[in-house]
Amino acid sequence: MLIMAWDRRLIFTIGTSSTTGETDTVVWNEIHHKTEFGSNLTGHGYPDPNYLDNVMRELAAQG
């Protein structure tokens, strides 16, 4: 499903970074990705028992 979202250009968009506040930059487009392994203190890491359910719901919302 993530490959299909990539092919349909749904993974990224141009917007304002929530991290840096920079405008007109490449940002995630409402489909969460895990960017950390072995820790989930930031909410961006594995293990996350709810990740597959959450990402499937986000993908469905994108069409």
TrEMBL record:
Its EC number is 2.3.2.27. GO terms for biological process: protein ubiquitination. Its main location: cytoplasm. Pathway: Protein modification; protein ubiquitination. InterPro entries: Deltex_C, Deltex_C_sf, Deltex_fam. Keywords: Cytoplasm, Metal-binding, Transferase, Zinc, Zinc-finger. It is found in: Cytoplasm. It catalyses: S-ubiquitinyl-[E2 ubiquitin-conjugating enzyme]-L-cysteine + [acceptor protein]-L-lysine = [E2 ubiquitin-conjugating enzyme]-L-cysteine + N(6)-ubiquitinyl-[acceptor protein]-L-lysine. One of its GO terms (molecular function) is zinc ion binding. The keyword Transmembrane helix does not apply. This is E3 ubiquitin-protein ligase.
